[in-house]
Write a structure and sequence with these properties.
Layout: H1 7-10, H2 14-37, H3 40-43, H4 48-67, E1 69-72, E2 97-100, E3 107-109, H5 110-118, H6 137-151
Antiparallel strand pairs: 1-2, 2-3
Length: 152
Amino acid sequence: MVLYIGFNETGFPKWFIYLCFVLCSIQNIVLCLFRVTGIFSFVEYHDRDHQKQFERSHVSAVLTRELLVVTTFKDIQRKDLPERCAVCLNDFVGDDKIRCLQNCTHIFHLGCLDRWMGQVQGTCPICRTPILPYACQEEYNKRLKIANRLHN
């Protein structure tokens, strides 16, 4: 069912909506001119420390993925299994690849948790327990130190 909201039903005056449209159009034209003339590179926000931090967090996410267990949903031997992934809200099916978090025992689809970690999240999406198993922390620190030496 599609619900169309007209100008009168939003509660905003017509002139206000037209003004917003005109301002957005002007902004798009100015940004387009900046890109064409090459000025846009001065307008963009560049922070090398922020970029390095993002690269480091990306490396840490890759290392964390290497240390986490991957299995299929049908191979998990627990009685209290959830029916669906808390990230994508899709039901688990027998052959779905699953990441089992050892610190909190929550499970997620492989792609869902990888995407979560890629966004610089090092904690469980449900309970905020660290994703990296406590037992693997020392190995993780060794690998991260080596990766940082190679990257710098």
